[in-house]
Amino acid sequence: MVLLSLNLDTSASVILTISIMLFIAFLLTRITKRFKLPNVTAYLFAGILIGPHVLNLIPASVISGMEFLTDLALALIAFGVGRYLKLDALRANSIQTVIITLFESLLAGAAVTLIMFLGFKIPLPLALMLGAIASATAPTSTLMTIRDYRAKGPFVNVTLQVIALDNVLALIAFSVVAAVIQATVGGGQVEAAVIILPVVLNLFTIALGVGFGFLLNRLINDKRTSDNRLLLSVAAISALAGICAAFGVSPLLACMALGTAYINLSGNTELFDQVSGFAPVILTMFFVLSGMRLDVPALAGAGVIGVSYFLVRIVGKFAGAYLGAGLSGASREVKQYLGMALIPQAGVSIGLAILGQRLLPADMGSLLSTIVLSSAVLYEIVGPASAKAALHMAGAIPKEEKKREEPLSEAKLLTVSHS
């Protein structure tokens, strides 16, 4: 049953689709809230519910026409991640943070790739893509837990820096894997020009992102109203994402560079808060759309693979964080508990899965999105609890501190003491 199968013009269908997506997403959050599950879980289930495999409320033509939401949502996510790459904060623990990030990110990615390829005999391009995606960590669950419990101290600082850097590493790994896949899928050979061109394009868009950061810093000043600041920032993010789409590259690295350049030039976190206030509607539609794209019948066949991906990534994160912290001389708390704070995986991984689906053949692309989307639900269920446990055992939550009705603002979160 396609609800919008009436003789409606395109604009009416799209407008009604947006209304259905947002309304169903809201209704399901009322259910997930009772089970203390994150909203992302509700959004994914909303997409599955109204998608082609369950109620089939939305025409396939409308779903395919909303592809732009993916790039815009990824651009907003990446811009937000950029705020946590402040150079002065990174310098304090630069070598230690880099070592930990390399170990936890690369070990998780390598473990997933090897298990998928050798254990489940899935095609190498798909295994490489899963490995690149496995290295990413979703910052939202951990950040929300830090804010709710007013956690602070060295453990919190290292956690935030590692999460930000491992997303950078994940995006770089994904870009390299994507270039190799574009060169080899279909029986072709890896040619230097085919790999170098995407790398050059990504470097160009990163430089462009830095340039946009300089421009945004010049345009936004105390004389601008709050509304105009938001308009300028969203315009810059959208323009950068559009340029990336025109060149056929992901907007992730470029928009992260934009956010990084702006925060280091201006030190202004209020703009990021404004963009965060604008983003929820776009991100909600993105996650619902991702749920609609999920190949539900494929879940049965991918069940064992999906669970294995879920567990192997967790083991890789734990082992990598433990080894990296030990080699870098990190504190006992970081060594033992950081891995627990790196479990969540949703926004960036889902976006990368959708991008990867475009590059892979249809059957591999469908399996990729099925594995990542289904495991994202599991990660979002256990992620907040594991982040809370990590903060508690690391002593980052004051003993007298209980969950407050008013969480700590992100502006204050960024100024937590390094002592």
CATH class of the largest domain: Mainly Alpha
Q: Helical region count?
A: 18
Strand content bin: under 5%
Could you tell me the mean pLDDT? 81
Q: Based on DSSP secondary structure assignment, what is the total number of beta strands?
A: 0
Can you summarize the main beta sheet?
Answer: none
Describe this structure in words.
This protein is an all-alpha fold. It has two domains: 1-66, no CATH class; 67-413, Up-down Bundle (Na+/H+ antiporter like fold). 76% of the residues lie in helices and 0% in strands. It contains 18 helices and no strands. The protein has helices at residues 10-34, 39-50, 60-64, 68-82, 87-92, 94-119, 124-134, 139-148, 154-184, 192-219, 226-247, 252-266, 270-293, 298-328, 332-341, 347-359, 362-393, 410-413. Helix 6 (94-119) packs antiparallel against helix 7. The longest helix is centred in the last third of the chain and has 32 residues, at 362-393.
Spell out the key features of this protein.
419 residues; mainly alpha; Na+/H+ antiporter like fold; 2 domains; 18 helices
